[in-house]
Design a protein that fits this description.
The chain is mainly α. The longest helix is centred in the middle third of the chain and has 30 residues. Strand 3 and strand 4 form a beta hairpin. Helices cover about 60% and strands about 0% of the residues. Helix 2 crosses helix 11, helix 2 runs antiparallel to helix 14 and helix 10 packs across helix 15.
Length: about 425
């Protein structure tokens, strides 16, 4: 099932793990030392461009009754919402730009264009998710309390709706994010602190109310003053723009956490966790996807989810250069660097949701060696001599080599079994 011993799974000694931490700390220090006007200019220009896009979208919606203008305005507005959500809001609230000491672009003052409260998100995401990444029972982002994404989550008939639930979650992702810290499950089961729950519910309702008023009342009413637009046309455009932003955000987040190779962990593994072990867990529990500069920008640079989890408070515009050095570290320690084309990674998340909607008896791979659920027990039958220095090349042979060896061994075993069956 889930990994209970990260260094053992990664085939690293304590000295290796500490050496890994030193190298990653050096990367962090280099970026911190080189932050400056170039980075400040980047975020200020990004904010200016995003606000320009939003104004352009709303003008397009107000200036013409043509369907082409409506779609142009809607898509422009959706793009502005995506940029505000992914490249600005998410990253500003991570503290990536706090070093600028700009009160407007600061993690404690930014309120993003979503129904969820920034204050709530900073707790559920910055603290719970990034500290306890993929630890079952501690990181609520493992399935968001709704989806079965690992075999460690016991199958229930409710899970038959996995694909339907994620479709609904994607369409209304901002609401799912906003309600996460409200903890409706605990409230309904009576397991919450009523006073604390009331405060959280009130905070959520205030923020969500302002957002609904802005998108579905104020802007449509303002736009309807134009003879070329109607209240309904703008209301519909805002709703469609929000859905586009929600679906995109859901896709980006899922590509970083649920494709093959994004590992899950148990609570026992974090006991006495060192900095190096935390780094290692972030590397093993995250996944990247590949694309050009536009895809990087529109994803908030979360196509570099591995790097983001290693250094969540470093500027997003630096993650691409950081990724080159992180890949070199992975190669040095023979660790997998989980990445792939965007559509492939996203398809894998949906395949996992489809598979795990079914009871385990219908699944083929073992609980310790499935694409979505692996543990150190997958190496129990690994032959001696596979791990260690390669006598021919002198290269380290670790987790990547071990995984390949297990796959080859299982494939050969299945092929031999098929040959015996054919001969009989």
């Amino acid at each position: 099932m889930a990994i209970t011993d990260v260094p053992a799974f990664a085939h690293l000694t304590e000295a290796d793990v500490e050496s890994l931490a030193v190298e990653l700390d050096a990367i962090r220090q280099d970026i911190e030392d080189s932050r400056g006007e170039r980075d400040a200019r980047y975020i200020r220009r990004t904010i200016a461009a995003q606000r320009g896009l939003e104004v352009a979208g709303r003008l397009l919606l107000a200036a013409s009754s043509r369907r082409s203008a409506w779609w142009a305005g809607t898509l422009t507005l959706a793009s502005a919402k995506i940029i505000e959500n992914m490249e600005i809001g998410h990253n500003v609230m991570h503290g990536q730009w706090d070093w600028m000491n700009d009160p407007e672009i600061h993690s404690t003052s930014w309120e993003w264009d979503m129904t969820g409260s920034s204050k709530h998100w900073r707790f559920t995401h910055n603290f719970m998710h990034h500290k306890y990444t993929n630890i079952l029972g501690m990181d609520d982002d493992v399935g968001f309390g709704l989806l079965r994404v690992t075999r460690d989550q016991k199958w229930k008939p409710f899970n038959l709706g996995n694909l339907l639930y994620n479709t609904i979650l994607a369409l209304g992702f901002e609401w799912g994010v906003g309600l996460q810290h409200v903890e409706l499950g605990k409230i309904f089961k009576g397991r919450d602190n009523r006073d604390e729950s009331k405060v959280r519910v009130d905070e959520f309702l205030r923020k969500a109310g302002k957002q609904v008023l802005k998108d579905y009342a104020a802007y449509p009413a303002l736009t309807s003053l134009s003879p070329a637009a109607t209240y309904r046309s703008t209301l519909t455009a805002n709703a469609v723009a929000n859905v586009i932003r929600n679906v995109w955000s859901n896709a980006v987040i899922f590509c970083g956490h649920f494709p093959d190779g994004a590992e899950k962990f148990t609570k026992t593994d974090m006991a006495g966790e060192s900095k190096g072990q935390w780094y290692l867990r972030q590397m093993l529990g995250s996944a990247n996807f590949e694309g050009g500069w536009l895809l990087r920008f529109m994803s908030g640079n979360l196509c570099h989810q591995i790097e983001h989890h290693l250094f969540p408070d470093l500027p997003s515009n630096r993650l691409h250069e950081i990724s080159v050095r992180v890949q070199q570290v992975c190669d040095k320690y023979d660790l997998p660097y989980t990445t792939g084309p965007f559509l492939v990674q996203y398809a894998k998340t949906w395949r996992t949701l489809a598979k795990l909607s079914l009871p385990d008896k219908y699944l083929v791979a073992t609980p310790d060696n499935a694409p979505e659920t692996r543990s150190e027990r997958m190496f129990a039958e690994l032959e001696p001599g596979v791990i260690g220095l390669d006598p021919k090349t002198g290269r380290r042979r670790g987790l990547k080599t071990a995984v390949t060896a297990v796959r080859n061994w299982r494939r050969d075993k299945q092929a031999a079994k098929a040959q015996r069956a054919a001969a009989a």
